[in-house]
């Protein structure tokens, strides 16, 4: 969340990768769209690999929180896709609802810890992490208690979480662009000096 102004800020990239992938998956959880290759590909590439790279860039910027968040959630997306694929490849049995629920609740615990770390950040950071904590808890409970309605509720809550991350990414990106924008000479409404 802190940014060294001499380097590019990887925050908007990581947030956009997280947000867009979260929206796509939760369209499925909310039963708006079926599971498909678009969701899995997004999880591998933009949610997974790109967020992981954003975390490495945050490391280079000496941002421990950003590094931990982006690399961890990048690993989450990669591991989730692997979890879905391993049974189809015949490499491991599918996880039981209790095991899958435990996996999701562990991510909820991690996210709750990260949410505490946002208390000195912007309200939007707090919203993203708090709603993500709730999302993991809802999904974990839906699996453990085998309650499909909780998955649908989680889907709609996850859409809010994902769009919140997209909004935060857009705000950070556009604020950074505005800070670097140069006003062209002779723009209407900007007085220019006239040589005497």
Automatic annotation (TrEMBL):
One of its GO terms (biological process) is succinate transmembrane transport. It is found in: Membrane. It is a multi-pass membrane protein. Its main location: membrane. The keyword Repeat does not apply. It holds the Pfam family Gpr1_Fun34_YaaH. Keywords: Membrane, Transmembrane, Transmembrane helix. One of its GO terms (molecular function) is acetate:proton symporter activity. GO terms for cellular component: plasma membrane. The chain crosses the membrane at residues 32-57, 64-86, 98-119, 126-145, 151-171. InterPro entries: Gpr1/Fun34/SatP-like, SatP. It comes from the Bacteria. Belongs to the acetate uptake transporter (AceTr) (TC 2.A.96) family. This is Acetate uptake transporter. It comes from Komagataeibacter sucrofermentans. The lineage of its organism: Bacteria, Pseudomonadati, Pseudomonadota, Alphaproteobacteria, Acetobacterales.
